[in-house]
Amino acid sequence: MAAAKKTEKDEKEKTPAKISKKAEKTENPEKAEKKKTKKEPASKEATLKKRTSDRSVLLKELKEKAKKLAAGIKGIETEEIKEELEKKRELLIPLEDYVKTGIHLGTKVITPDMKKFVYRRRADSIGVLNTSLIDEKIKKSIKLLSEYSPEEVILVCKRDTGWIAGQLFSQATGIKIFTKKYPAGMMTNTELETFYEPELAIICDPWVDKNAFADAKKTNKKVIMLADTNNFTRGADLVIPCNNKGSKSLGLVFYLLAKGYIEKRKMNSKMPSMTDFTGDDLQA
User: Per residue in 208-235, pLDDT tens?
Assistant: First the structure.
């Protein structure tokens, strides 16, 4: 009994204390609100200051980077840039001569392989090739071609529009040419009487001259390919984008390759004129 009375007394003593604390909380809600409102502005100001300081640091870093870049740009010699641009602008022949032969005129079909060489489409949907890229690729082809002796190179041109210019190319350079019909398996079958193993093949059209192209790839030979907008060029080591169907266009490509080859290898061969390759009338 005595123990029960003590616990009742203890509970009575504890409950008023709890009530008094709750009362304090309920009695002073305004004070609590004031405390909260005082703290909130301080925290907002702190975050704003932090943000502005971060921005200022970023701005400083960006300004420093900009100064370094500006200093680097100033350090590059403008004369060197000009020289490089002039070299790129220097064409093998005047632009007018390229245009007159129609070398830049492709077909209405443009394959994904040739899209990068196309400058625009005409109103009649004909793809127009970029003449500066044509010139650039011919220069690269001359460089590659000049690494080989005439005996190591063949020219394959089944299309009749390139036969006359092709023969002139062969006479000037000493490079063997195959027109009309390419001997099947000539580069792969050693038992054939016509067996011939060049190191480089110039293919005038990857579709028309597909047998020669296939043989060259089977035997891991280098290939310089003349390709129109409708051609697929996979497997070629170098592509010359051009109209590979017209006689004047093919004549111009053969002329430039022959001239560059003779000059690079310092040959004493007699070089026919450009009009011999393209014909008297240069109107496209």
Answer: 999 999 999 999 999 999 999 999 999 9
Q: Is 5 exposed, middle or buried (0-12, 13-18, 19+ CB in 10 A)?
A: exposed
The residue written with tokens 């064409």 in the block is 91
Q: In b/e form, how buried is each residue of 146-185, taking b as 16+ CB within 10 angstroms?
A: bebebebbbbbbbbebbbbbbebbbebbebebbbeebbee
Give the closest residue to 247 by CA, choosing from 169, 159, 172: 159
3-state secondary structure of 136: helix
Radius of gyration for the chain, computed over Cα atoms and rounded to the nearest angstrom: 41
User: Hey, what are 7's tokens?
Assistant: 């616990």
Coil, strand, or helix at residue 264?
A: helix
Residues 6+ apart with CB under 8 A from 274: 93, 97, 252, 255
Cα distance between residue 53 and residue 77, in whole Å: 39
Reported as a pLDDT band with limits 50, 70 and 90, residue 205 is: very high
Q: Which two tokens stand for residue 254?
A: 């053969």
- Alpha-carbon distance of 157 to 226, in angstroms, equals 10
Q: How many CB atoms lie within 10 A of CB 279?
A: 15
Which H helix or E strand runs over 239? strand 238-241
Report angle CA 270, 271, 277 to the nearest 5 degrees. 140
Distance CA 64, CA 86 (A): 34
CA distances 46 to 33, 38, 41, 213, Å, are 20, 13, 9, 74
Given a contact cutoff of 8 angstroms between Cβ atoms, the answer to whether 239 and 137 are in contact is yes
Tell me the one-letter amino acid at 136: E
In the numeric block, which tokens belong to residue 47? Answer: 């975050």
CA neighbor of 101 nearest in space, from 232, 259, 255, 240: 255
